Amino acid sequence: MGTHGYAAPEYILTGHLTSKSDVYSFGVVLLELLSGRRSVDRRRRGREQHLVDWARPHLRHPERLHRVMDPSLDGQYSARAAREAATVAYRCLHSVPKSRPTMRAAVDALEPLLAVCGDVPAGPFVYTVPPEPDGSDEAAATATAAVARKKCLASAAHAKGELRTTGSRHVSSVAGQRSSSSPEQITDRGA
């Protein structure tokens, strides 16, 4: 009955899905993007295990939004875009389904954020990929996803910097390629 952590409260109670249930789930995904956390994380304590319960009080207050933002972004994102995305997430996560926006309204509110880049702090960012002892591709996929999230929030046009690696593999955010060569710096040209 619904994916734990994403299901709207009314769906859990009634078992009835509506378009507003989907909007709630979208709000959870948006919150995951902002925070870098999973919707449910049993390794955290108390209220922090459930992302929505933990983050919702902070979403209403711009001065507290930094507590929700993914710390791995290291402040390299547009504060305005983060505030506006947090507002959309907050509205999508409303406990009363009729008070949630339509998906069209949520998308319309987020689309202008793609162009927001003027208040993105300039400067390099560094993401470290540890060596993979078991030879799996998981670290490469994780690094690529992290870089993509940074670029989305920071706007590709202004998120120029470097990617550095340790160990024997590296991930290029430009080409999304993996290499077994020795560690080297890869310059991200904001592609």
The oligomeric state is single chain
Portion of residues within helices: 25-40%
Percentage of residues in DSSP E strands: 5-15%
- Which CATH top level class of the largest domain fits? Mainly Alpha
**Rg calculated over all Cα atoms:** 18 Å
What is the total tally of β strands?
Answer: 4
Overall form: globular
Task: Characterize the biggest β-sheet.
Answer: 2 strands, antiparallel
Set out the fold topology.
Elements: H1 9-14, H2 19-35, H3 51-59, H4 79-92, H5 103-110, H6 138-154, E1 161-163, E2 170-171, E3 178-179, E4 186-188
Antiparallel strand pairs: 1-4, 2-3
Write up this protein.
With 191 residues, the protein is mostly helical. It folds into two domains: 9-115, Transferase(Phosphotransferase) domain 1 (Transferase(Phosphotransferase), domain 1, Orthogonal Bundle), CATH 1.10.510.10; 138-188, no CATH class. The chain is 37% helix and 5% strand. Strands 1-4 form a two-stranded antiparallel ribbon. The radius of gyration is 18 Å and the shape is globular. Residues 154-191 have low confidence and may be disordered.
Concise structural overview:
The protein has helices spanning 9-14, 19-35, 51-59, 79-92, 103-110, 138-154; strands spanning 161-163, 170-171, 178-179, 186-188. With 191 residues, the chain is mostly helical.
Features:
191 residues; mainly alpha; 2 domains; 6 helices; 4 strands; disordered C terminus; ATP binding; Plant_Ser_Thr_Prot_Kinase; Kinase-like_dom_sf; Prot_kinase_dom
